[in-house]
Amino acid sequence: MSYEEILLFVLGAISVIVAVRWVTEKTGLPAAVLLTLIGILYAYLPGPNLDLHPELVLTFVLPPLLYNAALDSSLLDIRRNMRTVISLSVALVLVTALLIGLGFSLWVAGATLAAGVALGATVAPPDPVAALAVGRKAGLPGKLVTLIQGEGLLNDATALTILTVAVAAWRDGNFNFDNAVGQFVISAAGGVLVGIAVAYAVRMLKALRYDPLNANALSLITPLAAYLICENSFVHHYVTISGVLAVVVAGLIVGHDTPRYATGASRLQVSAVWRLIDFLLEGMVFLLIGQQVPDVVRGLGKYETSTIVIALSITLGVVLLLRPLWLVTTQWLPRSLHTRLGGQDEPVSDVEKREAPLTGKEVTALSWAGTRGVITLAAVFTLPEKFPDRELLHFCAIAVVLVTLIGQGLTFAPLVRWLGLRANQTDKAKLRNEARSAAVVAALDRLDDIQEQQHDNVEDEAIETMRKQLQFRLDRYQRRLDLLEQVESHEVPESPQYEAALMVRQAVIDAEREELLRWRDAGRLNDDSLRVLNRELDHEELVLPKRPSNS
């Protein structure tokens, strides 16, 4: 493709991504599913196509996506559910890869254990993007969101490490289980250590994070640096380290530190930039997934139909059936084995409340949240050219992606609604208002400390003005809490007074903005000053909730 064709393709892809987002907002359909279907349709039309270059995806696409997901995750919640997350992101991925490997070696003509394990490693890790996008809109409880996020962050590292071991076994001519386990442990431990080191290096550069532009630049290079440290050829000459795991660990720690080491302006700008990057990268990836279908199908010509059917049946059977079986089985295991989902034996603090085992409805929803995506396709396309049954593995992998992405992606929201799984919005609203009240009380206490120090009359007036504003906010939060305490349902009740206050504040901001525009249009205010004043109003508008009932 020429540069003009690439540019035209990128512009067209962005237009499609924007249009699909508009459609999903109107219809509620999953964007990932629509983009994949559009990619398949486009692939069969005449015109330029972009190939999925796995190294490009693994180096420049996957690290930013995982890093942004880690920034938005909760380190405390994942640590609280660590046994469950490890069960799904490590143990389940390992078992999936091994079962598919055994199935291929036993029943697929000419297939080896290494080839089957390689395929199993690529299809084992779910991609949580589609499931979480749908689940959040459907009101999925926070506990399940945390489990899906945690699993999706860590399972990629497990899968890619297993894939590396399988390819090495093919080159060596045998699959040595002891060597595979040792390599996996070293790779994972190295990734964790590098991620921690990168996160603490970012912490040491906290002075740079006070400036929004510096904070943006530092945030953008962090995942790429963490990945490059692990995956460069010099390091790989001595030891294999998981770059994906390093990126995830760094993101979790940096995200946990951000409220302490960054200014409000930096956080706002960094968050906005990452939302845009995430939006465009995810859209491009799902379009590319669809475009690979024709080439993959054409590569099946040398295989018997029976071989294709058996290989696909084994792959889909393990992927679709093992996950619910695994979740149900781990619920039945004795508590002493420490694999019960959500179980904790040690004493917990008030912050780390004891997690109850998953209910049947939660197990059902979590079983259906196993959509596969970009990591599966990127990983399977990294297989060497001479790898046995490479074309068959490509087909099985993309079939799993399409079946789970389209089948589970389209039915996940109806399933969540049918199960009646809804986040308790009342509890969330109460917690937020309690935290707001506590913050205001802390601010009033700080004012008392200031007032006890030496000050003049001007400072007295400033203190009193601030005290009145804080007391007004505290009274408003308390009235909101009183209303929430009387609610028995899980939905936040509507408050006419609260909604009226939001409406009035929005109307005031609109009036201020219109007046500033009139001043600019009349030549009384230049555009530079207009942007500064508009930014002040934008920040005020940003704190207004879009849905008053969810505040």
Automatic annotation (TrEMBL):
InterPro entries: Cation/H_exchanger_CPA1, Cation/H_exchanger_CPA1_bac, Cation/H_exchanger_TM. It is a multi-pass membrane protein. Residues 17-418 form the Cation/H+ exchanger transmembrane domain. The chain crosses the membrane at residues 6-23, 28-45, 57-76, 88-109, 180-201, 235-255, 276-293, 305-326, 392-416. It is found in: Cell membrane. Keywords: Antiport, Cell membrane, Ion transport, Membrane, Sodium, Sodium transport, Transmembrane, Transmembrane helix, Transport. The keyword Membrane applies. It comes from the Bacteria. The keyword DNA repair does not apply. Pfam families: Na_H_Exchanger. Na(+)/H(+) antiporter that extrudes sodium in exchange for external protons. Belongs to the monovalent cation:proton antiporter 1 (CPA1) transporter (TC 2.A.36) family. This is Na+/H+ antiporter. The lineage of its organism: Bacteria, Bacillati, Actinomycetota, Actinomycetes, Micromonosporales.
